[in-house]
Specification:
- The protein is an alpha+beta fold and 329 residues long.
- It has helices at residues 32-47, 65-70, 123-136, 212-230, 241-245, 290-299; strands at residues 2-3, 10-21, 25-26, 91-94, 102-103, 108-116, 145-154, 157-163, 166-167, 175-177, 179-180, 189-198, 201-202, 205-206, 249-258, 261-264, 269-272, 275-283, 312-314.
- Mean pLDDT is 86; it is low at 316-321.
- Residues 192-312 form the CRISPR-associated protein Cas6 C-terminal domain.
- InterPro entries: CRISPR-assoc_Cas6_C (IPR019267).
């Protein structure tokens, strides 16, 4: 495999958290908001030493872990990143894909976490926080759980990096992307499976259909932002790929709209966050896009990526954990 020299590389690492319920639990069908919400609130309580201050105006913002994760600023010496008003957050919290809502004491559940750039070094905080959340309880029933294990997931291989109160830091190995693989140049067809709701906007409205051009416009923007903030401080040279994207056609589309809701404590209102799910197959000279499509699999796409929205997989035969293991580990 070869790195793409036109793309500023950045590091990412994937982790799988396995929890086991101590109490019976009732969770929503889509569990992204419940995991993401408790993490944000708990992290701020843990690290904030000036809770009355606005984060961006706080005198301690430059050294604050909460700001680095939830209100990131352009890194020093990154002029291209500074032109953006809002930074992409350096993590993706992918909830279990199961729609199951009722869990019994002894049942287990897993969810995935992707950390990007400097956020990788904050993994011990994530582990500690999800331990604490388990003690206080999750969901409307405040159901307690135990954090049983955390695994590092890399290129299909998994290694235990936390178990029985011990962190095995030497087993943590980050990946760098994107990379070109042998056979990429020959790819003429690819199927994308939208695993969680995808929310893309076109002229202010949510897209209810997809073309490859729209997909690439949004994917290249997200990867470019991540490169500018967490790579070498510069955006990629896309080398005319936008023009090539216009020549990619849709072979088959089996997309549908999926609605879900979450209550926002910050906005004090119930929010509708539906999006596209299903599969879509594109055809054409897809080789130049494959390294970026694979990288996008790791960091999701569209609105709400930190809740796990916009998660997709390449190909119909992807082996992806649904996140629910019953009474087994």
């Amino acid at each position: 495999m070869m790195a793409d020299s036109a793309f500023p590389p950045w590091r990412f690492a994937r982790f799988r958290f396995l929890v086991r319920f101590r109490d019976n639990a009732i969770l929503p069908p889509y569990k992204g908001a419940i995991f993401r919400g408790v993490f944000g609130k708990t992290l701020r309580k843990l690290v904030c030493i000036a809770p009355q201050a606005e984060c961006r105006e706080c005198a301690f913002a430059a050294k604050c872990l909460y700001v680095a994760i939830f209100e990131p600023s352009p890194p020093p010496g990154a002029p291209e990143a500074r032109k953006y008003l809002k930074a992409p957050r350096p993590f993706v919290l992918n909830p279990p894909l199961t729609n199951r809502q009722s869990f019994h004491a002894g049942d287990s559940l897993n969810f995935d976490l992707v950390l990007i750039g400097p956020a990788i070094e904050a993994l011990p905080y994530f582990i500690y926080i999800f331990q604490e959340v388990g003690k206080k309880g999750l969901g409307r029933e405040r159901s307690r759980y135990d954090l049983m294990r955390v695994e590092s997931v890399r290129e299909g291989q998994r290694a235990v990096i936390y178990e029985k109160e011990t962190i095995f830091a030497d087993r943590l190995h980050a990946e760098t992307g994107p990379v070109t693989r042998p056979g990429d140049a020959a790819v003429r067809e690819v199927t994308l499976e939208l695993l969680t709701p995808l929310r893309l906007k076109v002229r202010g409205d949510l897209a209810t259909d997809l073309s490859f051009g729209l997909w690439w416009e949004n994917l290249s923007r997200r990867l470019g932002l991540l490169a500018a903030f967490y790579g070498e401080g510069r955006e990629p040279d896309w080398d005319g790929l936008s023009d090539k994207a216009a020549g990619i056609t849709t072979r088959e589309s089996r997309l549908h709209w999926y609605d879900w809701e979450r209550y926002s404590f910050s906005q004090k209102e119930l929010m509708k966050l539906g999006g596209l799910k299903g599969t879509i197959t594109f055809a054409g000279e897809l080789g130049p896009f494959m390294p970026y499509l694979r990288l996008g699999e790791q960091v999701n796409l569209g609105q709400g990526t930190t809740f796990g929205l916009g998660r997709y997989g390449l190909g119909r035969g992807n082996t992806i954990s649904r996140g629910c293991d019953g009474r087994q580990e």
